[in-house]
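We modelled the chain as a single entity of 156 amino acids. Its sequence is:
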Amino acid sequence: MATIFETEYNWEPYLKYGTRQFVKRKTVIYNQGSIGDGFYYLHKGLVRIVTSTVKGRKRILNIVVPGQILGIQSLDQYAHFTTAVTVKDCVLYYFPRDQFKDLIMIYPDLRNLFAQTIIHKMRILLEGIKLNTLSSEQQIAILLLNIYDDFKNYKV
């Protein structure tokens, strides 16, 4: 059974409610620790999601591809626990928290999408923790499988 991230979800009806942003490569979209007040939909480009370790090192948690949303964890107006940085020039749509409430009222089916997205993000975080317990060879194997799963491409 395909997950919502393996099939393209049609965002076209919702884009008119967001603010389109053109963001250059290597631009920080939001910083870890900053208070969020909305979420983003990635229309074009790639975004790297990183977190800072206790020792101050950056650790990549995820790569967001077109058709996915990011920054959703801060809709509760708590601090972001990650930083989002563009890998390529991007086209993003920003949806403020209040707009999200209106969207849910107009399109109740979005609740399922957002619940699945939050579950997906939590799985990514748990996989990152689990990855640290594996040998280097096992870590590389897992990362290669993740690249295949995310990009549906056997070429690395």
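As a brief sanity check on the tokenised model: The helical segments are 12-15, 97-106, 110-131, 136-151. The first strand starts at residue 19 and ends at 23.
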